[in-house]
Amino acid sequence: MTILRGFSPHVEVYSIDECFLGLQGLDKLWLTPTNMGQSIRQRIRQWTSLPVCVGFGITKTLAKLANHIAKKQPEFNGVCDLASIPSAQLEALLSAIEVGAVWGVGRHLSQHLNAFGISTVKALRDTPPSWLRTKFGVVMERLGYELRGVSCLALEEVSVPRKQIISSRSFGQLVYSLPELSEAVASYMSSAAEKLRRQNSICNVIQVFIQTNSFREQDKRYSNSMTVPLPNASSDTRLLIRAALFGLKCIYRQGYAYKKAGVILSCIDSAAKQQEPLFELYGAGGRSAKLMCVLDQINQRYGRDTLSVFSTSKRKSWSMHRGKVSPCYTTNWNDVPIAYAY
């Protein structure tokens, strides 16, 4: 994403490998959008060795559609600018793309659209937005306008703080004992608390859940969760772990082979709006904030889990299998490739 900020100051990070760029006022820097797209592809390939595709559109939905075309149509060479495609060719192209390729149209919604005879992108674009709103709601109405070139989704350059944070993993092997489950839940809560502090927020309620493998018919099945209100809103890892372990002990049942556990932080508010209590509460106040700040700084500098609140064993049998993780070529000396000359 840092590379892309060199092409435009207006960047919305949509996911870990996808983002939108706003090109307002940048049209004179490049001969055509296609030239800009090829420059983006070449720089990212040169600096990271990652292949990417680029799509240009006057709305976010059309840009996503153009990116889809760039991926699926080799003749575009990884860059598609819908505005540069001749009208007749564009109409034929949209008539050949299934409606499920449109951003926001999933499998179930695609089936409902097909039932009304809307099976292609062109058919969806030509459907009156008012009819889409009547049958499918305001979200589909906006999608219809976006396909017609009317922008309804603004570029979000500042990420909105999340209202709910979930940290959950499937175990690398089945877990039976409460101590191992406690280690896993404490680790997940530490990760969730770090995310909470990163967006300068506090939460009022946590939820912990555990479940067995529903696909193992030979094992007894069990799943349960518990919601634990906090005595006061906090982002302190100590308080959050204590609440999570309390809930875990209440729902844990001996004799089951557990496959997954996780925690959920909800009722999230901004830490800046927290009302100061008359008496300093546990997991709140200036001392707690300073302690958590030091904890995050040490873990960021020296590596994850350098400092942890809940003691865990070095051998975490419950850890998720990661046999196919890509090597850390740029951050770990042991993973730097070695070239041999003969």
UniProtKB/TrEMBL annotation:
<comment type="similarity">
    <text>Belongs to the DNA polymerase type-Y family.</text>
</comment>
<keyword id="KW-0742">SOS response</keyword>
<dbReference type="GO" id="GO:0006281">
    <property type="term" value="P:DNA repair"/>
</dbReference>
<dbReference type="InterPro" id="IPR043502">
    <property type="entry name" value="DNA/RNA_pol_sf"/>
</dbReference>
<dbReference type="Pfam" id="PF11799">
    <property type="entry name" value="IMS_C"/>
</dbReference>
<dbReference type="GO" id="GO:0009432">
    <property type="term" value="P:SOS response"/>
</dbReference>
<dbReference type="GO" id="GO:0042276">
    <property type="term" value="P:error-prone translesion synthesis"/>
</dbReference>
<dbReference type="InterPro" id="IPR043128">
    <property type="entry name" value="Rev_trsase/Diguanyl_cyclase"/>
</dbReference>
<dbReference type="GO" id="GO:0003887">
    <property type="term" value="F:DNA-directed DNA polymerase activity"/>
</dbReference>
<keyword id="KW-0227">DNA damage</keyword>
<keyword id="KW-0741">SOS mutagenesis</keyword>
<dbReference type="InterPro" id="IPR050116">
    <property type="entry name" value="DNA_polymerase-Y"/>
</dbReference>
<dbReference type="GO" id="GO:0003684">
    <property type="term" value="F:damaged DNA binding"/>
</dbReference>
<protein>
    <submittedName>
        <fullName>DNA polymerase V</fullName>
    </submittedName>
</protein>
<dbReference type="InterPro" id="IPR025188">
    <property type="entry name" value="DUF4113"/>
</dbReference>
<dbReference type="GO" id="GO:0005829">
    <property type="term" value="C:cytosol"/>
</dbReference>
<dbReference type="Pfam" id="PF00817">
    <property type="entry name" value="IMS"/>
</dbReference>
<feature type="domain" description="UmuC">
    <location>
        <begin position="1"/>
        <end position="106"/>
    </location>
</feature>
<dbReference type="Pfam" id="PF13438">
    <property type="entry name" value="DUF4113"/>
</dbReference>
<dbReference type="InterPro" id="IPR017961">
    <property type="entry name" value="DNA_pol_Y-fam_little_finger"/>
</dbReference>
<dbReference type="InterPro" id="IPR001126">
    <property type="entry name" value="UmuC"/>
</dbReference>
<keyword id="KW-0234">DNA repair</keyword>
